[in-house]
């Protein structure tokens, strides 16, 4: 049974919980096989920030796929690792619609990620994607909107 809650699909039992529900990324958007992750990590490009390591490579399937990695080095407890993955998943959600298709992207958590919240991840993800050239900068978006309004 699935319950509709705050515009998100919540698992059974969430009912009328006052807390915001965090839901995983759609299965079609995820990298799932180890050879897919290895291809991105070994052959793709990478950049780092304080919280995350971003790796990316073009794919042949023609759609965007995202992988999240939180190793046992970050935390020995699966509950904590899964919590970080849920936060990352939620932080990626606002930029999904502006990311280009045809890319495999992997976000790997670094040691400082254990103390981060979703807002810190959102900022870090946007910064990394801009540096990688996968996301246009907000200044470029604003200039493009002005040009469209002026008929250029």
Please render the helix and strand layout as text:
Elements: E1 3-5, E2 8-10, H1 34-43, E3 45-48, E4 52-58, E5 65-69, H2 78-92, E6 103-109, H3 118-132, H4 138-149
Parallel strand pairs: 5-6
Antiparallel strand pairs: 1-2, 3-4, 4-6
Helix pairs in contact: 2-3
Could you describe the 3D structure shown?
The protein has 152 residues and is an alpha+beta fold. The chain is 34% helix and 19% strand. It is built from 4 helices and 6 strands, in the order ββαβββαβαα. The strands form 2 sheets. The protein has a 4-stranded mixed beta sheet, sandwiched between helices. A hairpin with a 2-residue loop joins β1 and β2. α2 crosses α3. The chain is globular, with a radius of gyration of 17 Å. The protein starts with a strand and ends with a helix. Mean pLDDT is 82; it is low at 1-19.
Short description:
The protein has 152 residues and is α+β, with helices and mostly antiparallel strands.
Features of this protein?
two-stranded antiparallel ribbon, single chain, globular, 4-stranded mixed β-sheet, 152 residues, 4 helices, 19% strand, disordered N terminus, alpha+beta, 6 strands
Structural class: alpha+beta
> How many strands appear in the DSSP assignment?
6
Number of helices: 4
Strand proportion: 15-25%
The separation of the N and C termini measures: 51 Å
Q: Looking across the biggest beta sheet, what order are the strands in?
A: 3-4-6-5
Low-confidence stretches: 1-19
Helix coverage percent of residues? Answer: 25-40%
Main sheet specs: 4 strands, mixed
Return the string of H and E elements: EEHEEEHEHH
Cα Rg: 17 Å
Mean pLDDT across the residues is: 82
Tell me, briefly, the overall form. globular
């Amino acid at each position: 049974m699935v319950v509709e809650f705050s515009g998100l699909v919540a698992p059974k039992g969430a009912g009328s919980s006052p807390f915001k529900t965090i839901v995983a990324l759609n299965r079609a958007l995820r990298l799932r096989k180890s050879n897919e992750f290895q291809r991105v990590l070994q052959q793709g490009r990478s950049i780092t920030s304080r919280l995350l390591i971003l790796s990316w490579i073009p794919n042949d399937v023609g759609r965007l796929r995202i992988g999240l990695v939180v190793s046992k080095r970050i935390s020995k407890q699966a509950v904590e690792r899964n919590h970080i993955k849920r936060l990352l998943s939620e932080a990626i959600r606002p930029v999904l619609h502006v990311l280009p298709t045809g890319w495999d992207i992997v976000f790997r958590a670094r040691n400082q990620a254990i103390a981060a919240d979703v807002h810190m991840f959102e900022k870090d993800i946007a910064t990394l994607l801009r540096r990688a050239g996968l996301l246009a900068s907000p200044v470029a978006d604003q200039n493009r909107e002005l040009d469209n309004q002026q008929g250029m």
